[in-house]
Specification:
The chain has 441 residues and is α/β, with parallel strands linked by helices. It has 3 domains: 15-119, Alpha-Beta Plaits (2-Layer Sandwich), CATH 3.30.70; 122-191, Alpha-Beta Plaits; 206-440, Peptidase S8/S53 domain (Rossmann fold), CATH 3.40.50. The protein has helices spanning 2-19, 48-52, 54-62, 88-99, 134-144, 169-177, 238-244, 293-302, 337-346, 363-375, and strands spanning 24-27, 30-33, 35-45, 66-71, 77-82, 104-113, 116-128, 146-153, 156-161, 182-191, 218-220, 227-229, 253-258, 276-277, 319-324, 332-333, 351-354, 383-387, 406-409, 439-440. The strands form 4 sheets. Strands 3, 4, 5, 6, 7, 8, 9, 10 and 16 form a 9-stranded antiparallel beta sheet that branches. A 7-stranded parallel beta sheet has the order 14-15-13-17-18-19-20, with helices on both faces. A two-stranded antiparallel ribbon has the order 1-2. Helix 9 (337-346) packs parallel to helix 10. 46% of the residues are buried.
């Protein structure tokens, strides 16, 4: 009888573990729990050929549940969209079945923090103590099963678990975090489909740039009604700044850490300096396809002035350093964003512009921001700006709410805080606000 009860206990314990998905990690000692996306999965394949054959391979398990597959990050990772939402236990069951395929390196859930979808895989990030010896690190990896993939920053590494371990980077990072030679550990997250990107103004010609000089001109809304009459004086008085220093300082480099910039754009090409690609695509910082977010941001900052075409940037004499972190599917990785930030300040960027944000808090990104703030501009510190977010709510997004950065919000052509009910009639977005907001424009 005791043996029967014990076996029954093991059965239900195993059933429970199969139904529960680990979705909590720790940031500064505080638990951060994400929600499960009920209609999405992520799959990492061992090689590109299998990834290209993803539909055939996955259909055998998912059948009619398989709606579509999308590029996620790199050449071997795919986001899987399902035709319907599933329960946590159902998702866990399908993940187990997908992981049984020999071509699959890791099937895992897609999670959500606020409005940002974050995929996990078998990788995780660790910052080892500066005093940790290589022998101690090797012993810890031997004990817990992690393998060093590549170094991200000083004492900070990307690691991965073998498929045989049967755990995601969330579980692995929690195991490593308990070690005395680890300062912090966190999952590797892939932020999906542009969820981190924040919208920008895309004015066609300088007379429409009411944010520079607002004379009460008619402004396109992109909604209904199609135009509004702006309120004179609701602007940044950019023309008055130009009276003091026309177009800004040509020695100032602004890093646009974003989706890439159109390197052949006639209103930007003369104001570009060498950039970098940290998007996983490894094809340079030229904006992919018709992706315009980074190009729009760069134009607002430093589109060429006095060239008789297009618009004029606020600092049209300054230079833009294009740094791409979002790939062609709009995804970004917390294993690559720190390198993008480091590249910016290490290569002379005085200002780091980040028109993106959201997602769960991330120590690797925060460490990179700290390095920019303390080591940029030859030790004076680079200026780091982040968008407050476009959710039209009273919660400034991470990482904009950090005290080490400037959180930038939005106003409209009537000097109103941009919100879904403001007089610009753009009902689909509004700037986040709150006590952490530093400036609005």
């Amino acid at each position: 009888m005791r043996l029967f009860v014990f076996l029954l206990f093991l059965f239900f314990t195993g059933l429970l573990s199969a139904q529960t998905i680990d979705r909590t990690y720790y940031y500064h000692g505080q638990a951060v729990t994400l929600n499960i996306e009920s209609n999405r999965l992520s799959v990492s394949f061992y090689n590109e050929a299998d990834a290209l054959n993803d539909v055939n391979l996955l259909s055998g398990v998912l059948g009619g549940l398989l709606s579509e597959t999308k590029k996620m990050y790199g050449t071997t990772q795919r986001q899987i969209k399902l035709t319907q939402g599933l329960s946590e236990s159902q998702i866990s069951s399908y993940i187990d079945q997908l992981n049984a395929l020999p071509q699959v390196k890791m099937a895992a859930p897609v999670l959500r923090y606020n409005n940002v979808r974050q995929a996990v895989d078998n990788k995780f990030l660790v910052r080892f103590s500066a005093s940790a010896t290589q022998a101690e690190i090797d012993q810890l990896n031997n004990d817990l099963g992690g393998t060093l993939v590549r170094q991200i920053a000083v004492d900070t590494w990307l690691l991965e678990m073998d498929k045989s371990a049967g755990i995601t980077g969330i579980t692995a990072s929690n195991q490593y975090a308990s070690s005395s030679i680890v300062e912090w550990a966190q999952p590797h997250f892939i932020y999906l489909e542009g969820d981190l990107l924040n919208a920008t103004v895309n004015d066609a010609l300088h007379p429409q740039q009411w944010a520079h000089v607002n004379s009460g001109q008619t402004v396109d809304t992109g909604g209904t009604p199609s135009t509004v009459r702006a309120t004179p004086g609701s602007d940044m008085d950019v023309d008055k700044a130009w009276d003091l220093l026309p177009g800004g300082n040509s020695a100032v480099i602004v890093a646009v850490i974003d989706s890439g910039v159109d390197l052949q754009h006639p209103d930007l090409d003369d104001n570009l300096v060498t950039g970098a690609d940290y998007s996983g695509d490894n094809d340079g910082p030229d904006a992919p396809g018709d992706e315009a977010h980074g190009t729009n941001v760069a134009g607002i900052i430093a589109a060429e002035g006095n060239n008789s075409i297009g618009v004029a940037g606020i600092a049209y004499n300054s230079k833009i350093m294009p740094i791409q972190i979002f790939n062609s599917s709009g995804s970004a990785s917390n294993a690559d964003i720190p390198g993008a930030i480091d590249f910016a300040w290490q290569n002379g960027a005085s200002v780091l512009n980040n028109s993106w944000g959201g997602g769960s808090p991330d120590q690797a990104i925060e460490d990179a921001i700290s390095r920019a703030k303390t080591q940029g501009r030859n030790g004076k510190g680079s200026i780091v700006l982040f968008s407050s977010g476009n959710g039209s709510n009273a919660n400034v997004n991470y990482p904009a709410y950090l005290t080490t950065v400037l959180a930038v919000g939005a106003t409209n052509m009537h000097s109103e805080k941009k919100n879904i009910g403001s007089s610009d009639y753009q009902r689909w977005w509004g700037g986040n606000y709150g006590s952490e907001l530093d400036i609005s424009a």
